[in-house]
Write a structure and sequence with these properties.
This protein has 280 residues and is of the alpha+beta class. The protein contains 7 helices and 10 strands. It folds into 3 domains: 3-103, Helix Hairpins (Orthogonal Bundle), CATH 1.10.287; 116-170, SH3 type barrels, CATH 2.30.30.60; 176-256, Alpha-Beta Plaits (2-Layer Sandwich), CATH 3.30.70.100.
């Protein structure tokens, strides 16, 4: 390569920089200024949402969506400063959108699922839900994913598309929830006495819903014992602590009254010369 080639290339490069230089500087300034403004807007938006009575689940979704929209608008402005015509800009974004949409079909499904969750509200942040064989408290709802925290401290992130298309068991949507204790007694036990003892033991708990009944019923007569269902009502957020405490309270009350749980018995037969002898 001779010296004339490099001189010509340098001249063309300088002409290009002189021609596009101001627009490039303006675009760079607009980009930096735009990022700064977006941070201020997001800070103000978070403050406004924090002061409002908006649900936490909606707050996180709005924040995530706002960042996406604001940066998209900023790139549109930067492109316009660089001389990209609006129609061309939209055409490029449209083509890119189609390509990205085909590549990220799952993400678009998750976005639609997040919108459905916020519109129909099958659950919100703080609810205890059971979905896709996972039980936990909802920690966060983003535009693409929902995060729950299990009782053993694990964080499970689930795509909103899968969540919105699944059966959701919301265990804290209703204020009160019924506790069911399945108990077994021998046929020799007096049902009326057992009922009285169990109700007495369960009724002592301070967190019971006083306007709802505590009841005990014979639920099933089995082959070797009778099954009794004991029920009471508590606030949904107190379900598990009260469940364990009630189970323990019933056991202590039965022990105090000398009522024993059934012990499985088996009849064993042995054959002797003079006949069959039964042993238990």
């Amino acid at each position: 390569m001779n010296k004339d080639f490099w001189t010509k290339l340098k001249s063309q490069l300088l002409e290009f920089l002189v021609e596009i230089g101001p627009e490039l500087v303006y675009a760079l300034v607009a980009l930096i200024l735009g990022i700064f403004i977006i941070k201020i807007i997001m800070r103000l938006l978070k403050g406004a949402l924090r002061k409002s009575r908006t649900e936490l689940s909606l707050k996180t979704f709005v924040e995530s969506l706002s960042v996406f929209v604001l940066y998209g608008f900023l790139f549109f402005i930067v492109g316009s400063i660089l001389g990209i015509q609006t129609t061309s800009f939209l055409a490029v974004f449209g083509a890119a959108g189609i390509a990205i949409g085909l590549a990220l079909q799952g993400s678009l499904s998750n976005f639609a699922g997040g919108v459905l969750i916020l519109v129909f509200k099958p659950f919100k942040v703080g609810d205890l839900i059971h979905v896709n064989n996972n039980l936990g408290f909802v920690e966060q709802i983003d535009i693409l994913y929902t995060r729950i925290k299990t009782f053993d401290g694990r964080i499970i992130t689930m795509p909103n598309g899968n969540v919105s298309n699944s059966d959701i068991d919301n265990r804290t949507m209703e204020k009160y929830r019924r506790i069911d204790l399945n108990l077994k007694f021998s046929f020799d036990a007096d049902i009326d006495e057992v009922r009285k003892v169990i109700i007495r033991g369960m009724s002592k708990h301070p967190k019971l819903a006083g306007h709802l009944p505590v009841d005990v019923w014979l639920d099933e007569i089995g082959e070797y014992q009778m099954k009794i269902m004991a029920r009471c009502w508590v606030e949904s957020v107190e379900y598990w602590p009260v469940y364990w405490e009630q189970l323990e309270a019933v056991k202590k009350e039965l022990d105090r009254e000398g009522i024993k749980m059934p012990i499985p018995k088996h009849a064993i037969y042995r054959e002797e010369q003079n006949g069959i002898v039964e042993q238990s």
